[in-house]
Specification:
Helices cover 53% and strands 18% of the residues. Strand 1 and strand 2 form a beta hairpin. The longest helix has 34 residues, at 140-173. It is built from five helices and five strands; from the N terminus they run βββαβαβααα. With 174 residues, it is α/β, with parallel strands linked by helices. Helix 3 crosses helix 5 (140-173). The protein has a single domain (2-173), classed as Nucleotidyltransferase, domain 5 (2-Layer Sandwich), CATH 3.30.420. Mg(2+) 2 binds at residue 68. It catalyses: Endonucleolytic cleavage at a junction such as a reciprocal single-stranded crossover between two homologous DNA duplexes (Holliday junction). It comes from Jiangella alkaliphila.
C-alpha cells in the first residue's frame, strides 16, 4: 500500500509518501514541505498547495491520501488555514478518485509511538526509526506527514479487513 500523508497548513504543508503493509518494513518514497508566504493572497497560497499536490499525485500514485483531521484550537486563524489546506488536499484526491481518510493527531501519535500524548520530538524519533532514516525529517511538518502515512498503512489495512468482514457477514445473512 502506498499512502500520501498530508499535514495541512497554509504556511507549511507537509507531504510524505510511505509504502508498506502491516508487519513488514516501511519504505520512505518521498517527503517535502510546501511553503507559501504568509503575506501572499489566500487564493495564491491555496493554488500553490493544489499545484504541489497534483504533482505529487501524478508522480507518486498513492493508493490513499491520509490527511490530519482539523481540530479546534485556540487560534481561529490557524484553524481556518489548516482547514482550507485540508480541503484542497481532499478535493485534489477526490477529483482523481483516490480515497481520502482523516486521522486525529492523537490517533497518529498512538499509531507511531504507542502513546496518543506523545510530543513532536517522540513522533519524529519514531518516524525516523520506523523508516530507517539517518536523520529526522525536518521541519516537523514533514515528519508529521510521514507519521500520517504510517498511521494509514497500519490502521487502514486493519479497517479495510474489518469492513470486508462486516460486508461478507451481511451478505451471508441474506
Amino acid at each position: 500500500m502506498r499512502v500520501l500523508g498530508v499535514d495541512p497548513g497554509l504556511t507549511r504543508c507537509g507531504l510524505g509518501v510511505v509504502e508498506g503493509s502491516p508487519g513488514r518494513p516501511l519504505n520512505l518514497v518521498a517527503v517535502d514541505v510546501v511553503r507559501t508566504p504568509a503575506d501572499a493572497e489566500l487564493g495564491h497560497r491555496l493554488l500553490a498547495i493544489e499545484t504541489a499536490l497534483e504533482e505529487w499525485l501524478t508522480r507518486y500514485r498513492p493508493d490513499t491520501v491520509a490527511v490530519e483531521r482539523v481540530f479546534s484550537q485556540h487560534n481561529v486563524r490557524t484553524v481556518m488555514g489548516t482547514a482550507q489546506a485540508s480541503g484542497v488536499a481532499t478535493l485534489v484526491a477526490a477529483r482523481r478518485g483516490i480515497p481520502v481518510v482523516t486521522h486525529t493527531p492523537s490517533e497518529v501519535k498512538a499509531a507511531v509511538s504507542g502513546s496518543g500524548k506523545a510530543d513532536k520530538t517522540q513522533v519524529a524519533f519514531m518516524v525516523t526509526r520506523l523508516l530507517r532514516l539517518d536523520a529526522q525529517p525536518k521541519p516537523a511538518d514533514a515528519s508529521d506527514a510521514l507519521a500520517l502515512a504510517i498511521c494509514q498503512v497500519w490502521r487502514g489495512a486493519a479497517q479495510n479487513r474489518l469492513q470486508a468482514a462486516v460486508a461478507a457477514a451481511g451478505r451471508g445473512r441474506r
